[in-house]
Amino acid sequence: xxxxxxxxxxxxxxxxxxxxxxxxxxxxxxxxxxxxxxxxxxxxxxxxxxxxxxxxxxxxxxxxxxxxxxxxxxxxxxxxxxxxxxxxxxxxxxxxxxxxxxxxxxxxxxxxxxxxxxxxxxxxxxxxxxxxxxxxxxxxxxxxxxxxxxxxxxxxxxxxxxxxxxxxxxxxxxxxxxxxxxxxxxxxxxxxxxxxxxxxxxxxxxxxxxxxxxxxxxxxxxxxxxxxxxxxxxxxxxxxxxxxxxxxxxxxxxxxxxxxxxxx
Length: 264
Ligand code: KIV
Prior knowledge:
2 domains, 10 helices, TIM Barrel, alpha/beta, binds 3-methyl-2-oxobutanoic acid, globular
């Protein structure tokens, strides 16, 4: 029996060893990844990766809850964080709390993530004050990228770099337990990682971050509509699926499947 993960155990990993995070949207994937990850993110990337939609802005609260429930059915020891989808938290503190509460109550997940810096600090503080742990997300914010537009790396200009530092500081003061830094130029991400007193999780940011996160379907070679530079493919499951489907097709057509072993 595994022990229930806690935010404080997660935060305590900072400075001890690198923190391992991946996305998960389904029960079987959660089961496969849980023993190897400190954190599973039910990311709003599910809209693009699973549903084939154009942007993460197409995710909605129901979608996040359904996939969150699926992941929670199989998680054992990894912290589970669910994205607040675009449009569910920006309008007011009350809207953010209602959405986060619905996610946490209906899924039993450990925390929510929202995209934004100093501008979203009031929301973060309100959620944390109401007992909901929040993971921040700064830099490249996919919820702000329109369909068809390419992702823009953050921090190239001095004003942008100091805004990113200010964003990280504001989120930490508001009470986030960690910050995802996405698509930020390396020196800026390194300097934020070194000055931040909560775990920083990089994705196209810096090896100096306390941990790393990638979209699981990207590292498995399951999603190739678009592969950012920061992805490394650790497997090519599309090829394996094609090979298995070809073998199955051949076996059905040539009559070698099913055999007596498969029949009643
Ligand atoms: O939605 C997502 O998958 C994310 C990660 C890539 C950080 O936000």
